[in-house]
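Hi support team,

I've been running sequence recovery on a batch of backbones for a student project. Most finish fine, but this one hangs at about 90% for roughly twenty minutes before it completes. I'm not sure whether the input is malformed or the queue is just slow. I've pasted the structure tokens below so you can try to reproduce it. Let me know if you need the job ID as well.

Thanks,
M.K.
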């Protein structure tokens, strides 16, 4: 019989891609989310539209028994959503409830293994003040000092999962995501992350125009393409390593240079205007020593390759929207 997997947050970007990956591997997959994937990027065998903040919804989602559970459901978004402070209460309240309900229901249902998608946002702000030399190795998480309530919630939830591992024996795997991007993700509306936002701005700009970039553009990040994210998740789940472990790229880039990459991919002649806006920490980059040590593998796809695929998809969405308004 096929192994059974539950993907919580299957209506989202990473969750939708994960469903497809698991199906290709032969899993029977159930997805659950507040909504179905808006781009049709889910081919789950069964899909439940449900609110995991409700314990009953979590119990229903886990009916039938599962070998593996992937908990990606969260209240989150890009810098414009996370770092303004306007959504802090919802981010913490909603995500904690999803995690607590899914984890407890999984324990009661006898689930063998559960993956939790944490975030690099849980790393201390004081280790990320130098944009050229941020420290994001796994052991640097403490003393804790995340730069956002989103990061604090992720750190708390890591501890929640690890406590269920210690007290109840449920096998837990924790991955700290670093800016996952790719096609079929949110690209407009305020919750989009930097890669999709950058691609949208460039795609919408007229030849000779200007795109706006928040901050001075010297802040640094790394970005991981969705396919390599899924490869890391699957390798972690199939391993005997609990984590937490970074799931990200070590190809660090300044945000201004990132914007220049998107412009170069488009072939347009555009300039950059830096403006005030939420930016988060000054520097962040994945440290992949531990994933290489524990899994014998680490992401290595060049950022440009993933951005070319992402820009192509986002520009098609922009063109379709323009056509629809004509």
């Amino acid at each position: 019989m096929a192994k059974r997997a539950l993907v919580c947050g299957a209506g989202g970007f990473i969750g939708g891609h994960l469903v497809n990956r698991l199906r290709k591997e032969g899993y029977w997959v159930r997805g659950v989310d507040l909504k179905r994937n808006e781009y049709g990027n889910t081919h789950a065998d069964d899909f439940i539209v449900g609110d995991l903040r409700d314990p009953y919804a979590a119990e229903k989602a886990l009916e039938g028994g599962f070998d593996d559970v992937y908990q990606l459901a969260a209240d989150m978004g890009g810098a414009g959503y996370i770092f303004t402070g306007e959504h802090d209460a919802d981010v913490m309240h909603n995500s904690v409830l999803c995690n607590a309900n899914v984890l407890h229901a999984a324990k009661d249902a006898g689930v063998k293994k559960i993956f939790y998608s944490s975030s690099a946002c849980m790393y201390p702000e004081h280790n990320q003040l130098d944009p050229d030399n941020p420290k994001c190795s796994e052991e640097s998480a403490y003393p804790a000092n995340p730069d956002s309530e989103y990061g604090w919630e992720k750190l708390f939830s890591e501890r929640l999962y690890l406590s269920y591992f210690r007290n109840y024996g449920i096998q837990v795997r924790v991955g700290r995501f670093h800016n996952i991007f790719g096609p079929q993700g949110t690209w407009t509306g305020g919750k989009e992350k930097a890669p999709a936002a950058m691609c949208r701005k460039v795609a919408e700009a007229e030849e000779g125009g200007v795109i706006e970039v928040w901050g001075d553009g010297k802040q640094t990040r790394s970005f991981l393409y969705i396919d390599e994210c899924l490869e890391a998740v699957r390798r972690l789940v199939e391993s005997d390593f609990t984590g937490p472990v970074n799931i990200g790229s070590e190809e660090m880039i300044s945000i201004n240079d990132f914007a220049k990459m998107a412009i170069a991919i488009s072939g347009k002649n555009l300039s950059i205007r830096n403006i005030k806006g939420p930016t988060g920490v000054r520097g962040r980059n994945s440290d992949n020593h531990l994933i290489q040590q524990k899994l014998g593998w680490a992401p290595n796809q060049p950022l440009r390759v993933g951005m070319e695929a992402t820009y192509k998809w986002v520009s098609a969405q922009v063109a379709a929207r323009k056509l629809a308004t004509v």
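--
Follow-up from support: It reproduced on our side and the slowdown came from queue contention, not your input. Residues 113 and 171 are 5 Å apart (CA to CA). No action needed from you.
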